[in-house]
Specification:
There is one protein chain. The chain contains 22 helices and nine strands. The protein is α+β, with helices and mostly antiparallel strands. The strands form two sheets. A seven-stranded antiparallel beta sheet has the order 6-5-4-3-9-8-7. It has a two-stranded antiparallel ribbon with strand order 1-2. Helix 2 packs antiparallel against helix 3. It starts with 18 loop residues before the first strand and ends in a 6-residue tail after the last helix.
Length: 614
């Protein structure tokens, strides 16, 4: 127990003081690149020429060009919406009949819909298409929809949409077989075309791995055969009946071809990877008659593939050089917002509902605030503003009713109780006629909720520390925040070195001893009374990593384990002291009329015992 009982009240008076271009590519590179837009390159080049001509014109002629560009954006937006309708119709035909029927429909539309680039992007980008049918179509030699040369070019365009840059061969090959929009066909000739296309694509994106594409092709066949022999029940049974399953040495002999030899370490790693983690290429139909565990495994695999696809997109984006343009035309901003708002909503609300971190919640509330303000200013009240405001209302309702049981809160939101809040009604009423008032209400609510979640999180940490210290100290205070905790060695007045656990708050430094569950508080130092001084190594008994905290309450010499730890503690304490002294002087100046009759020491004592409201 502490020697000075008056320290127990730490809050009392001081009785104890993008336009995009691939990096490294030139105009003569004819490889096919993935692209977000389905429009032809001709349209993009025309827009670039238009922008370049505008920049060369005198300022007084650029006003009219801004209006022309605004009109161009509106036209492109209409084209985008028309394109989406065509794609949806093609998907419907694929569901009702076959993928080949959908391709014939696109070819019949003519224009950009009949280009191989659009068809390849359609097959790759739409997850709802049957993967088996996609694999059969892109690897076919000839069909009633496309000629032999068109099919050959289509496969080249399709693999041009894939990006294996920076991936190991194992990761890239697994990604190709399981998450590139198709399933491997059963016909040997079609498999051969796909393996050849992969070997060229991998060598294109990783030119320093193999000396030739033939090495990548042979290795692709080898890994495919190894996976089949080790993990296909029929092939494994046949192998056991003859010479046994393929060994690492046998696999190495199989894939080594020609004069250029493959790296033995890579071959060994590939063998071990395939042996331990089979490449599973099952389709959903093959899982329909299996047990729940198999279906759950398939679901996890699908999630993993989605992650791999997202990472591939991020890698592709990281290799592009982005340039951002500001748009002042309302039509452009409105069109962009209408296209993207639901994606922002899904991302923001998903994170907001799942996270408990106050900083993350604060960022999400900022995003909702700006999204609502943009919708209000653009006149997009239904459904854009309503959707964002509904999620904000639900978050506010849950935060304000934490005293209710979770089921009770859930039932209340299902009944729409959160939509009866007055601020929500005011926002929806004022948005059409008084945009500034509606924006002000949303901003006020979001700012209040940000302050509330951060304050509640800070107070919860203080309550937990109170429990950790055996409820001896009352640490809850509206202005107090926890900063850091950890062990430090303190030199006693007799020169002894004792290990203590220190707790640093924005206004206090507390040190305790003992074991968890049985801690004893030794001292509470008010930082507004403290100074900190660095001590050079060897200043005290050849001790390193030491610094001194001077206070009217007690001077202490603290020793850290390492120089890095010392630097961290020193910076945190120094910053906290500086801020507390600044706050102290500001408070005394603001209350000078009532404090001028007191001595400086008494004024500081009044500051330490001040009352604060949350």
């Amino acid at each position: 127990s502490p020697k000075n009982p008056e320290m127990a009240d730490v809050n009392g008076t001081a009785s104890d003081y993008k336009e995009e271009k691939k990096l490294g590519d030139d105009d003569t590179d004819h490889k096919f690149e993935p692209t977000i837009s389905l429009h032809d390159n001709l349209e993009q080049s025309e827009q670039a020429k238009s922008i370049q001509q505008t920049q060369q014109q005198p300022p007084w002629q650029q006003n009219g060009n801004r209006q022309m560009r605004s009109g161009t954006w509106a036209i492109r937006y209409d084209q985008h919406m028309e394109e989406q309708k065509v794609v949806q119709q093609a998907l419907k035909k694929a569901r009702q009949d076959k993928v080949k029927t959908a391709i014939k429909f696109l070819l019949a539309q003519g224009g950009r819909y009949a280009t191989l680039k659009f068809i390849a992007t359609f097959l790759y980008s739409n997850e709802t298409l049957d993967k088996e049918e996609v694999g059969e179509f892109i690897s076919a030699l000839e069909t009633s929809a496309l000629t032999e040369s068109q099919h050959r070019d289509l496969l080249l365009v399709y693999v041009g949409l894939l990006n294996f840059t920076g991936q190991s061969f194992d990761v890239a090959f697994r990604h190709f077989l399981t998450d590139c929009g198709f399933s491997l066909p059963k016909e040997a000739q079609k498999i051969d075309r796909l393996m050849d296309a992969f070997s060229h694509a991998f060598s294109r994106d990783n030119p320093h791995v193999f000396e030739s594409t033939d090495q990548a092709l042979v290795l692709s066949y080898g890994v495919l055969m190894l996976n089949t022999e080790l993990h296909n029940p029929k092939a494994r049974a046949a192998a056991m009946a003859s010479a046994g399953p393929m060994t690492k040495a046998g696999f190495g002999y199989l894939v080594q071809s020609g004069e250029a030899q493959l790296n033995l370490d890579m071959i060994g790693e590939l063998y071990d990877s395939v042996k331990e983690n089979p490449i599973e290429m099952k389709t959903f139909h093959e899982y329909q008659n299996e047990d729940v565990q198999a279906v759950q495994k398939q679901f996890r695999n699908e999630c993993s593939r989605l992650v791999q696809k997202a990472l591939a997109k991020l890698r592709d984006s990281s290799l592009r050089k982005h340039s951002w343009q500001k748009a002042r035309q309302r039509e452009i901003v409105r069109a962009l917002y209408e296209v993207t708002w639901h994606q922002f909503l899904a991302a923001i609300t998903t994170v907001l509902r799942q996270t408990k971190d106050p900083q993350t919640q604060s960022v999400c509330l900022d995003a909702i605030k700006y999204s609502c303000a943009a919708a209000i200013c653009l006149g997009l009240n239904e459904p854009q503003l309503h959707a964002f405001a509904c999620d904000l209302a639900k978050f506010v309702f849950v935060e304000q009713n934490k005293h209710l049981l979770p089921n009770a809160r859930h039932l209340a939101t299902v009944r729409g109780e959160h939509l009866k809040q007055q601020w929500f009604i005011n926002v929806m009423n004022f948005a059409p006629k008084s945009k500034s008032v509606a924006c002000e209400v949303v901003s006020h609510i979001c700012n209040d909720m940000q302050a509330r979640v951060i304050y509640d999180a800070d107070q919860k940490i203080l309550r937990d520390i109170e429990v950790e210290l055996g409820l001896y100290l009352h640490l809850l205070h509206p202005d107090r925040r926890f900063i850091h905790a950890g062990p430090l060695t303190k030199q006693s007045s007799k020169g002894d070195l004792d290990l203590y656990r220190f707790y640093l708050f924005n206004d206090l430094l507390i040190y305790v001893s003992g074991n968890p569950g049985n801690l004893s508080v030794h001292r509470v130092l008010h930082l507004s009374l403290c100074q900190i001084k660095d001590l050079r190594d060897g200043y005290v008994r050849n001790i390193k990593n030491a610094f001194r905290v001077k206070s009217p309450q007690k001077d202490i010499v603290l020793i850290a384990e390492t120089s890095k730890e010392k630097h961290e503690w020193f910076q945190l304490i120094d910053n906290a002291i500086s801020k507390q002294i600044e706050l102290r002087e500001r408070w005394i100046n603001e209350n000078y009329q009532s404090l001028q009759e007191y001595h400086k020491t008494a004024q500081i004592s009044k500051y330490l015992g001040r009352e604060s409201k949350p």
